[in-house]
Specification:
Blueprint: H1 2-14, H2 22-31, E1 37-42, E2 45-50, H3 54-62, H4 69-76, E3 82-86, H5 92-101, E4 106-110, H6 114-126, E5 132-135, E6 138-140, E7 144-150, E8 170-178, H7 179-185, E9 193-196, H8 202-207, H9 210-216, E10 220-225, H10 227-230, H11 238-246, E11 249-255, E12 260-262, H12 265-268, E13 275-281, H13 285-296
Helix pairs in contact: 1-2, 4-5, 4-13, 7-9
Length: about 300
Amino acid sequence: MITFLFIFVARFLSAMRYFKGRDRISEILIMSIPQDSIKLTVDGLALDLDKTDSLSRSIILKKQLPGKTWMLLENLLHSGDCFVDVGANIGYTTLVAGRIVGEKGMVLAFEPTPRAFKSLEKNILLNRMHYVEAFNLACSESDSDVIFYTSSISDEYNSLKPDAYSMSDASIKVKAVALGDFLLSKGVQRVHLMKIDVEGAELLVFNGMDAYISQHKPDIIIFEASGKNTKPFDYLPSRIADRMIEQNYSLKVFMSSGQITDYQSDYVNREDVLCDIICYQTEFSGEVEKAILKFKS
């Protein structure tokens, strides 16, 4: 009863017109709930959310999944597909994909952070998705132990470099794998859709699957692009895009607003821009265009 009351009041406050202290009061109410994690259903998915993580608190308050990328997945995945989620966090895109591909499909989710991975595992179990595999691993250029920088505020800021928003306040050692070799070790030679969101380390992930992309050509790859996030890694997002163009992929830009436009290197490299780049093989252009039309409608 206390949990329900606190959540109700916190949601009521957060929906009010902004006033000084509004968000802080809502946060205090959520943090005052006796249990460490809170279970609720969002968009038909059961979630176990750690209240110490600000992303999870946001889901509790808004009762909606973060961002818009997961909506795009709903229009690009089908029953029986293989989906790879690199930077799965607590698993909301993993679960959306798992619900679509079903038992005939395959979902592989990678998340190196202990707190987020714990939630990811719980959420997979809650939704009875036994066909979804979760790996407590980072994806990088090679198989190795790496230093991973974490934020106590939210795991969405965690990365292989101190984050661009100065949120990192600790570091841990985690295991990293070269994604291409890892997929082959699992017998995965056909990936329909891959999502990569690793706070600026996207180039390292691509470096670890160069040969895989050349030989096995995933149908569609969606990766996050942010000039601000890639700056600590000393590259621009267009470097990955150029590589995908060389591999004969076509590109679209999925803006945070939900608008989908043609690829422009100057735009995706800007430090004030956070977007996704959709890379797809020519034979799937009709599918992508259809998904874009559905998303716009």
